[in-house]
Design brief:
The structure is a homodimer of 85-residue chains.
Chain A lengths: L12 H14 L12 H8 L3 H13 L3 E4 L3 E4 L9
Antiparallel strand pairs in A: 1-2
Helix pairs in contact in A: 1-3
The first copy, chain A, binds a DNA duplex (21 and 21 nucleotides) through α3.
Amino acid sequence: MEFEIDFRSKTPSYQQLAGKIRQAIAAGQYAADDKLPSLKRFTQETGLAQGTVQKAIKLLEAEGLIYTVNGRGTFVTGPPRSLSA
Amino acid sequence: MEFEIDFRSKTPSYQQLAGKIRQAIAAGQYAADDKLPSLKRFTQETGLAQGTVQKAIKLLEAEGLIYTVNGRGTFVTGPPRSLSA
DNA sequence: AGATATTTGTTCGTATGTATC
DNA sequence: GGATACATACGAACAAATATC
């Protein structure tokens, strides 16, 4: 029930999901460079369509919280590395 | 033919469209706070689905180049106002 | 090398909701 | 109320990149 969506809420599903993922990361459930569940697993656990899950992911990616790699998965952004040099 | 899409290109349609719009703005075809064509008009002129057009729009919005208002339309972002004070 | 599976990326068509005109 | 315009969401299909066998 980790990422459950309230379909009767007026808050859009993708925002709800983004919030839950944000919380999970903030709670230390996923560390830097840890892999998040796949889109498919999110669709299964939430009942949302892939496009909707992806929208949540892209939102967090825009925030710089996570990053995605085609063919590999979605990962938590690590703390800023010391700038080159 | 203003915003024509090359469907044989390897560049995704939404990126192509975003590029064309970016150019049109850079070319001074739309001034600050000018209204861009509606999603519907873009779908008609390009042959793309609404979701794809919207993806292009959201990309430019993320860049800060344009902004959208539900029920009104999409507009060109003006030059930065002097910071409050 | 090749086949297969997994995972994210792109795109369509459609429907409905919300806001504005 | 009606028309217009952007927002959310579904289901489906296929492409592209990666991983595994």
